[in-house]
Amino acid sequence: MYLIVGLGNPGAQYAKNRHNIGFMMIDALIRGPFFGPEKKNFDGITSEGQIETAKGLKKVLALKPQTYMNLSGQSVQKAMQFYKIKPERVMVFHDELDLAPGRLRMKLGGGHAGHNGLRSIMANVGPNFMRGRMGIGHPGAKEDVLPWVLGDFAKADQGWLSALNDACVRALPMLLAGTPDAAERYQNEVMRLAPAPKLDTRQIANQKD
């Protein structure tokens, strides 16, 4: 069993926030034909399914913690304990300020870089899980960060946002294949399927590739 987690905050008022891009990715995943109905489990919303890979079918539990971002780790830990899932089989998709909008970086382990959802997961299960860093861009000034992440995506963002979420789902067989370069291959395939939008000069000054 693999655990694929999308981070966000519960409630209609947060649904379209940049901070909820992880929830959006999970919603795209469980719309597929091989996932069951949503259920309330482990202080979250879950859906069980299967993903076809080059090495056969892989069982997957999709999870959207409903504990609010800074307690996400409690929900993740409960799901892991119930299914006896190792940290290396946990993939967490979350918003990333330090990546340009539409970019994706996938890696195993690392720090939390101030992200409260990652901070909570690391406190509960350790650092050795896979992180899918989904770029939302940086507003430029530190004091603008909170209203930026808790602000809604603009209408102009909807094209790349939908494409990125769909690509993250379509490329999952590569990530679950279990090869040493799975994260890199997955990242490259997502970016091939959904190239990030081009930024203007002012935006580029505030972003990291």
TrEMBL record:
GO terms for cellular component: cytoplasm. Pfam families: Pept_tRNA_hydro. Monomer. InterPro entries: Pept_tRNA_hydro (IPR001328), Pept_tRNA_hydro_CS (IPR018171), Pept_tRNA_hydro_sf (IPR036416). It is found in: Cytoplasm. The active site is at 19 (proton acceptor). The lineage of its organism: Bacteria, Pseudomonadati, Pseudomonadota, Alphaproteobacteria, Caulobacterales. It catalyses: an N-acyl-L-alpha-aminoacyl-tRNA + H2O = an N-acyl-L-amino acid + a tRNA + H(+). Its EC number is 3.1.1.29. Belongs to the PTH family. TRNA binds at residues 14, 68, 70, 116. Keywords: Cytoplasm, Hydrolase, RNA-binding, tRNA-binding. This is Peptidyl-tRNA hydrolase.
